Amino acid sequence: MVFNSFSFLIFFPIVLLLYRIIPKKIRWLMLLAASYYFYMSWQPDLIYLILFTTAVSYLCAIGIEKASKKGLKKLLLVTAIVASLSVLFFFKYFNFLSRNITALLNLIRIPVGEFTLNLILPVGISFYTFQTLSYVIDVYRGSMKAEKHFGYYALYVSYFPQLVAGPIERPENLLPQLRAENPFSAADTAAGLKMMAVGFFKKIAVADQISKYVDAVYNGVATADSSLLNGFTVLIATALFAVQIYCDFSGYTDIAIGCARTMGIRLMQNFNDPYSATNIRGFWRRWHISLTSWFTDYIYIPLGGSRRGRARQYANIFFVFLISGIWHGAAWTYILWGVMHGVYQIIGYITEKPRQAFWNLLKVPQDSKWLIGLKRLGTFILVLIAWVAFRANSLSDLGVLYGKLFAGWGGLSVFESLKALGLGLVPAATVLLSIIVTGQLDRQIALKNHSDSGFGAVTSDRALMYVVLAWTIAAAWLILLSGNGASSFIYFQF
Hints:
The chain has 494 residues and is mainly alpha-helical. It is built from 19 helices and no strands. Helix 2 packs across helix 6, helix 3 (47-66) runs parallel beside helix 5 and helix 10 packs across helix 15. The longest helix is centred in the N-terminal third of the chain and has 38 residues, at 70-107.
């Protein structure tokens, strides 16, 4: 079951109604059952994995809190980490590692046959694994008490709005809210439904519509469609992919946050206008915020952060982004994408003072609007170059794409390239309008999700926007339900 499906349109109102009429003392049981049903609608046979990870982390955390000896506490912590990461590694990385070891052995003339297993990647495993790890580590650090009620803890791990693709919630934020009364609030319900509407618009009206133009280039590298490839088509497809993945992932997050908000539960913000960042560090403070903060708190800072000199700081940054690439997927393209962002940040630190000195020499204020615009453009270009690696289907495809992007601008003219992509006047105008509307929604609605006023009253200048949005979403749903069904979200594969 995906958010943008007919089944979810039935599932969610039923859950919300039951949440409001069932007594608080057994509300957790209904939510837990609904969450497991939601998960099992994809892969019913793999429910035992989330149950295993939940049970091990629950027992280890209680043991850590009760243990009097530091050695035993460490042993239980290591047990929980190894158990959770072993499940993640086996299902997500075993075949990748096996193929690469086989290739390496054959390269050094040790003949070995390829050995892989017929494994299905469990949906959301990277997200709920990190969520359980943060809980056990926090209990070990003494920053929070172990949750004694297994039902509430299991609900924290599996809470359906954010189970599959985040945000990666912290136990100190979500657990108390699951226990709270959360009385009905018209403001919260309205805010949540509006946030969901924004998410549906981003996913169905923008991301899904743009995807066909992106796929025409990226899925056509090794086929006859490669005739479409030149520097311009790769650039346009990559820019559109930047919009697609943002609307797809932030759209999911908006729906997740909105679902929880209707129940009076506030999930953490996961995006904050990332393409307006003026440097790569700023981009990662605005993109997938829950993952960035997780890596910062549980890997970067424990490694020493920036406290042990520049060389160590750069090594820590590189390692964190290497792990980030690996976390995203078992493919060299994802690893390269992570490494590129790590290198970007290291170069950014090294050149920070010389760049400031250069602009000071030219007497250009750091808060100059045109300088800020130039920095945003430069940052966006760097992000786009890395997105090529993220979206490429293989390293060989990546080589072709980079070759065309940097040295392949001959062949088709600009208008021929747009026509080949199917971007005539009407489709191009529709895509542009969708991007503009998305930007307006993010600025005027989505970023206010965590403010005290929420979405409150709708001012007159926004009333028309909501009407247009509602009709757009209604039309998108009709297209969806009469077509090939709901498309999956990109981050479900991670």
